[in-house]
Design a protein that fits this description.
Order of helices and strands: HHH
Oligomer: single chain
Number of helices: 3
Bound molecules: iron/sulfur cluster
Length: about 70
């Protein structure tokens, strides 16, 4: 039983945004006000793929990679 529980808890584990370590100036968690707290909790913790800022930063990063080639 214990292995089933650990499998379930692992699959429910939150996936933080990869940009938390190097955030952009517009990232929600940098300027926590009442509007941004809920956005940061939702997007930065587990739904970063849906974050407009994430999408923008990811695109910029891939453009920079392409320019370096
Ligand atoms: S989820 Fe969006 S706001 Fe949060 S750290 Fe990632 S890019 Fe920034």
């Amino acid at each position: 039983m214990k292995s089933d529980e650990s499998t379930v808890s692992r699959s429910k584990k939150k996936k933080k945004c990869p940009f938390i370590g190097s955030p952009g100036k517009d990232c929600y968690f940098l300027d926590m006000n009442s509007n941004k707290i809920s956005m940061a909790l939702f997007y930065c913790q587990n739904h970063y793929a849906q974050c407009a800022i994430y999408k923008k930063m990811k695109t910029k990063k891939s453009v920079h990679k392409d320019l370096k080639r």
